[in-house]
Amino acid sequence: MIIKKTPQEIEGIRQAGKIVARAIFEMAEFLQPGVTTREVESVAKSVFERYGAQSAFWGYRPGRGMPPYPGYVCISVNDEIVHGIPGDRVIEDGDIVSLDVGVRYRGFVGDAAATILVGNVSRRARRLAKVTYEALHKGIAAAVPGNRISDISRAVQNWVEKHGYSVVRDLVGHGVGIYLHEDPQVPNFVSDEFPDPVLEEGMTIAIEPMVCEKSYATKVDADGWTVRTADGGLSAHFEHSVAITREGPKILTLLENGKEPYVPK
Q1: How many CB atoms lie within 10 A of CB 83?
Q2: CA 149 to CA 69: how far, in whole Å?
Q3: Among candidates 19, 52, 4, which has minimal Cα distance to 198?
Q4: Is the pLDDT of residue 108 over 90?
Q5: Is 163 left (phi over 0), alpha (psi -120 to 50) or beta?
Q6: Would you give the distance in Å from CA 240 to the centre of its chain?
Q7: Which domains does the chain have, with CATH numbers?
Q8: For position 66, what pLDDT does the model report?
């Protein structure tokens, strides 16, 4: 069931989204060669504590026999697509690091992600991140009342494949706001396997292209969570929580000044 939100509820999601954006911004500022992913996570934890928010990921159990998620944020490096668990891994010069943050704040949830370019990143990695970021905004532009979910999917897929990349098939975007994962599913590719509801005012969705340098085939690590490319190619991930409004799509995971927490250059 799709949960449509009132203007007041959308504002509550926006307040949670500001904390998400602040956490991504501060982690991106902190990221440099030599730090561990656990140290990066600690930056996000300090942001949550500052605002009185809680991680929406910590202890999350999606079912299917998976263990509860053991981190406060997801930090995925290079060929890791999503759900990387913070730990002792040391970030190296040239890494690309995907930060995925979900926050619960005063009864509402915000969810966003960005892939950070660390140090002297290769041209191919930089291009991948840029195209993924652009694909996110192609999808957001299609999130208007009267369109369907598949219009978002098509916009993302067309942009990604136009540039020679592939979109992950095993993971998709989703509704968000009251719960971390709500209906509808928001795939980054067009498929008859998913419901294709009309977008209506009051819907809030997380649009999140997960783009692979080569094949979209994935594999999961022994930890039960970390998803990476099966062929070892690089992957990038960008995400915003978005409200469908009569004035057009409204991004709910922006900083206090209305800017995005990170834009690849």
Answers
A1: 23
A2: 28
A3: 4
A4: yes
A5: alpha
A6: 6
A7: 7-251 (3.90.230.10)
A8: 81
Residue 64 has pLDDT above 90, yes or no: no
pLDDT(65) > 80: no
How long is the chain?
A: 265
Handedness of CA 62, 76, 194, 134 (dihedral sign): positive
Q: pLDDT tens for residues 220-231?
A: 999 999 999 999
Residue 90 has pLDDT above 80, yes or no: yes
| The pairing of beta strand 54-55 with beta strand 218-220 | unpaired
In this structure, are residues 90 and 140 in contact, taking their beta carbons and an 8 Å threshold? Answer: no
Per-residue 3-state assignment (H helix, E strand, C coil) for the chain: CECCCCHHHHHHHHHHHHHHHHHHHHHHHHCCCCCEHHHHHHHHHHHHHHHCCEECCCCCCCCCCCCCCCCCCEEEECCEEECCCCCCCECCCCCEEEEEEEEEECCEEEEEEEEEECCCCCHHHHHHHHHHHHHHHHHHHCCCCCCEHHHHHHHHHHHHHHCCCEECCCCCEEECCCCCCEEEEECCCCCCCCCCCECCCCCEEEECCEEECCCCCEEECCCCCCEEECCCCCEEECEEEEEEECCEEEECCCCCCCCCCCCCC
Give the distance between the most distant pair of CA atoms in the chain. Answer: 48
Residue 62 pLDDT greater than 90, yes or no: no
Query: Which tokens in the block code for residue 117?
Result: 């370019």
